[in-house]
Write a structure and sequence with these properties.
Number of strands: 0
Distance between the termini: 129 Å
Structural class: mainly alpha
Helix content: 55-70%
Largest sheet: none
Oligomer: single chain
Strand content: under 5%
């Protein structure tokens, strides 16, 4: 059986291919989302529009922006100073540890020398225990003037040839 032929007004439209597509929306929010994703936020915070409607709110907004910018710069500056001070503290602490290690080595060396001297000495009872009050400070010897080059050259004999040269 064959379907009866239809001769209605939609007959011509159904003969071609049919494609599904979204219907165009004319609402304001749909158009704004297609243009830019932040159009709603940017449109609500325009400085000119706010300044026209409420100038005190615009000046308050500028003050808040300036204070936030100043606060951000202060945080960056303090972070840089903190890192600098932390590195200085680390260096000082490493120097302190190194000096403590050297002091400990010096004390061990002094103890070893005292033990050796007591072992070698025939009369250990005559030795006096050391203390800082009993130390005698001797001035450093004065440096002699270096000999002039003429006296050094006078001591060299060009006729004497050393072995190996």
């Amino acid at each position: 059986m064959l379907a009866p032929p239809t001769h209605g007004s939609l007959e011509k439209l159904l003969l071609g291919p049919v494609v599904a597509a979204p219907a165009p929306s004319t609402s304001r929010s749909a158009r704004g989302q297609r243009q830019r994703p932040l159009a709603l936020i940017q449109g609500s915070l325009l400085a000119r529009r706010v300044e026209r409607t409420a100038p005190w709110l615009a000046s308050l907004h500028r003050i808040a922006d300036g204070s936030l910018l100043g606060l951000g710069l202060a945080v960056v500056g303090l972070s840089a100073l903190t890192l600098h001070w932390q590195s200085q503290w680390t260096r000082s602490y490493q120097s302190l540890e190194a000096s403590q290690l050297l002091e400990q080595r010096l004390q061990k060396s002094t103890a070893l020398l005292e033990q050796h001297h007591l072992g070698v000495a025939h009369n250990p009872g005559q030795l006096v225990p050391t203390s800082s009050e009993k130390l005698i400070y001797v001035p450093a010897p004065s440096a002699q003037r270096p000999a002039s080059i003429i006296t050094l050259l006078a001591g060299v004999s060009p006729r004497q040839i050393l072995a190996g040269y």
